[in-house]
Each structure stands twice: as structure tokens, then as C-alpha cells.
């Protein structure tokens, strides 16, 4: 599947009907999702036939894209039942069978239950702004516990040094695959601008 074809398919994925501010629910754009998945698939061969976890999966754009690129099985984890309902509807519309959903709070779930159960973990975690400071690192910690090989994640570029320090502490190798402009559309009432560009790193974490 070509990159443009994948992006075109992902544009048909339904997103949050009423995003929840406390959960920092912002959809991953079809363009960013397609670029991430295409790179994971073509450059690193970490999707095809692999067992993939999608943490904070929301409405499922990353899982659905991974399934289209022939992942063996994708399991989406999210705390929000409303988002998972949309995700479930999306999988039905795309007629995708190799996806499972788990509703749980990743910050309090015992990640050891899933320790090294997944080949690859993909995620666009909450950035840890507003009321959720540090949640991005909790997601990353869970992801690294659950993956037996690689984690691919989006994080604000401004947190790169902090994340690199943590990766060193945890004994994992971190690589910046790309620097992206994350176009955040106005989703909430307090947003004054129609959209804001945030500098975001697309990171790969490898277990050494």
C-alpha cells in the first residue's frame, strides 16, 4: 500500500464526537498517522505479522492503519468507553477483523500483566499539559514494559532532553525518527485560534 493510499483511507476514520479535555483528546491527523505507520512498516519492518499494542488508542486511527499494513493483531487500549465505541464502529465500517479493544486506565493498570507481550507498541499519548503533568512518561513506561522490541511514540519536541534522560535511566535506546508539525485544530471552547502548530518528535525506543 502506498503512503497516499494509506492516508486517503485514514481520512475516512471517524474521530471524537465530543472530545474530553481532561483526557487531552486530540485526534492524530490522517497525514501524521500515515507517515508514522508507513515509516514503522517500511523502514523498520515492525508491523507486518506483528502483535501490536496501541496505547491511548482513541478512535483507532493508528490501529486501523497498522491493520491495513498487515499487522498480525492490533490491541487498542483506552480509558474512554465513548472513544472505544467510535473505534469499534470504525473497525466494522472498514471490515477489519484483526483488532481487539481493552478499556483500562494505563496509568493504574498493572503493565506487568502485559509485560513483553507485544512486538511493537505505537502511541500518540497525552502530552501531559493542563491537569495531566507527567502522564506522557507514565504511558511511555507502560509501553516499554509491554513491548519486547520497539516503541514508537509522539512527544513534544520541548520534552526531548527529559525523555532522553529517562531513556538512558531505563536502559533503552531512543532515536528521533522525524520532527513534525502537529497541527492542533481548535477542539475546545478555550481555544482562541483555529489551529496551533506544535513541534513534535516522532521517537523510536529500542530495547537493548
TrEMBL record:
Domain (Methyltransferase small): residue spans on this chain: 43-144
GO molecular function: nucleic acid binding; rRNA (adenine-N6-)-methyltransferase activity
Alphabetized Gene3D superfamilies for the sequence: Vaccinia Virus protein VP39
CDD domains reported in the protein's UniProt record: AdoMet_MTases
InterPro entries listed in its UniProt record: DNA_methylase_N6_adenine_CS, rRNA_MeTrfase/Polyamine_Synth, SAM-dependent_MTases_sf, Small_mtfrase_dom
Family: Belongs to the methyltransferase superfamily. PrmA family.
Name of the protein in its database record: Methyltransferase-like protein 5
UniProt source species: Myripristis murdjan
Gene field: METTL5
Amino acid at each position: 500500500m502506498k503512503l497516499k493510499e494509506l492516508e486517503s483511507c485514514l481520512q475516512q476514520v471517524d474521530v471524537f464526537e465530543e472530545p474530553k479535555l481532561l483526557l487531552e483528546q486530540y485526534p492524530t491527523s490522517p497525514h501524521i498517522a500515515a507517515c508514522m505507520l508507513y515509516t514503522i512498516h517500511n523502514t523498520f519492518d515492525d508491523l507486518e505479522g506483528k502483535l501490536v499494542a496501541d496505547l491511548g488508542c482513541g478512535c483507532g486511527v493508528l490501529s486501523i492503519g497498522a491493520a491495513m499494513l498487515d499487522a498480525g493483531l492490533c490491541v487498542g487500549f483506552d480509558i474512554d468507553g465513548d472513544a472505544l465505541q467510535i473505534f469499534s464502529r470504525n473497525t466494522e465500517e472498514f471490515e477489519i477483523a484483526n483488532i481487539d479493544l481493552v478499556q483500562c486506565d494505563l496509568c493504574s493498570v498493572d503493565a506487568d500483566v502485559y509485560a513483553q507481550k507485544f512486538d511493537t507498541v505505537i502511541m500518540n499519548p497525552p502530552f501531559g499539559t493542563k491537569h495531566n503533568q507527567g502522564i506522557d512518561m507514565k504511558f511511555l513506561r507502560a509501553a516499554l514494559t509491554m513491548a519486547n522490541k520497539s516503541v514508537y511514540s509522539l512527544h513534544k519536541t520541548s520534552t526531548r532532553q527529559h525523555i532522553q534522560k529517562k531513556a538512558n535511566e531505563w536502559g533503552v535506546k531512543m532515536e528521533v525518527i522525524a520532527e513534525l508539525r502537529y497541527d492542533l485544530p481548535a477542539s475546545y471552547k478555550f481555544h482562541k485560534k483555529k489551529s496551533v502548530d506544535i513541534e513534535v518528535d516522532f521517537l523510536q525506543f529500542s530495547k537493548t
